[in-house]
Amino acid sequence: ASIAYIAGFVAKAVEERRTCTACPYLHEAHSSSPELVGLISLSTRGGLTFPKPEFVAVLAAVKKAVDFAVPHIGTKDVRKKLANIITPYLIKCPLFMCPARDEHVECTVSTVIDKYVRILLANIGTTLTDRAAYRKKLMSKPLHRKVLRV
Length: 150
Prior knowledge:
Blueprint: H1 2-17, E1 27-28, H2 38-43, E2 50-51, H3 53-73, H4 78-91, H5 103-131
Antiparallel strand pairs: 1-2
């Protein structure tokens, strides 16, 4: 349900950047499956978008790929490296294909990756930071505070 909630945000961002009327929509007017978008239907007041189930499935696959790749990537330019890994696979996805122009696929995919991977990396970073114990590593047992060290 949380991926569907984020997918609605990403679909809305793609729609705002869309310039072609032939490009496929990534959202639908009403929810078709209540169990998939239950979180959206509970918290909507008319402003949230309901993503297509196919789009939610694609983003779930991207999340699995990111979870698998992040430990092996390193610490510098993580988002760019993930984008370079994921982009070729999403460009081949028929969900993003524009019947009018081929260049629109790259624009749509770059928007999806930019918005979604940024959120995923923020969540991963928060989780890793929360897990890290803030402790001081000592080389030896600390002296009692009444003992003066010379």
